[in-house]
Amino acid sequence: MTLPARSKGDGGAESAPAAPDDVTSGVAGNERLTAVAGTVLLILIVIEILTIPALRALMSVHVLVGVLLAGPLIVKLGSAGYRFARYYGGSAAYVRRGPPRLQLRLLAPLLVVLTIVLIASGIALTVIGPANPGPFLAMHNVTFLAWLPVISIHVVAYASRAIRLVTAESSESPSIPPGRTWRLMTNGVALLLGALGAAILLPDAPPWDAWIQVSQAVPAPLIAGSVLTLVVLLIARPGRWA
How far is CA 182 from CA 16, 24, 93, 143, in A? Predict the structure, then answer.
């Protein structure tokens, strides 16, 4: 596939100034939708990770938040996928805005796959129960081990930009791109659907409450993943990609 021409080199969309028609073309609105969904997702991910050392007391919370994550994840994948399609489809506004930096583009497919597998395997475990988890328990743990450093790179690279966009989205500035109500409603509906899914699956969580009582106090994947994440962040220094 031939890449659309860019006017700013490969500095990434984060370094390209917004063009006057970015608002009317939908580029700015798409960026803000992605930023809001990503921020909601990050808050839920932090809560989910914080439950891991205390799974004996918080297994039900872990399950609830894990299912709830699916809603904003769909919104973020949808908005990012739309930008991908418009850019590679040759939309002038999206081509002018440019893609993310090359490193983040190369990392994105891996992050998407790992995130989907992590959440899907967690939901499968909730439904199946601990008596006969099959390959899903090992899949969930191994995926988490690989996912933690990848999501950490993504967060460090995008955090400052996401904060700036979400802050701008919550302001009363007249320059806010049209569609803010729709963007907020989209994220709100996604959370409600995730909450509905969690309410449906939460009754299946009690067997895992019993199982975790005889399991290790702090799951090994969290310890190994944390060490691996620290090493990867020190080597990659993704803050330079912001």
Answer: 26, 15, 21, 34
Query: From the centroid of its chain, how far is CA 54?
Result: 23
The helix/strand/coil state of 169 is helix
Q: Give the angle subtended at the CA of 97 by the CAs of 156 and 24, to the nearest 5°.
A: 115
Q: How many Cβ atoms from other residues are within 10 Å of residue 110's Cβ? A: 13
Q: Say which residue the tokens 């002018």 belong to.
A: 96
**Structure pTM?**
0.84
Asked whether the beta carbons of 72 and 190 are under 8 A apart, the reply is yes
Instruction: Please provide residue 101's backbone torsions phi and psi, each rounded to the nearest 5 degrees.
Output: -60, 155
Q: Identify the CA nearest to 35 among candidates 89, 75, 88.
A: 75
Three-state DSSP state, 178 = coil
Residue 122 predicted with pLDDT over 90: yes
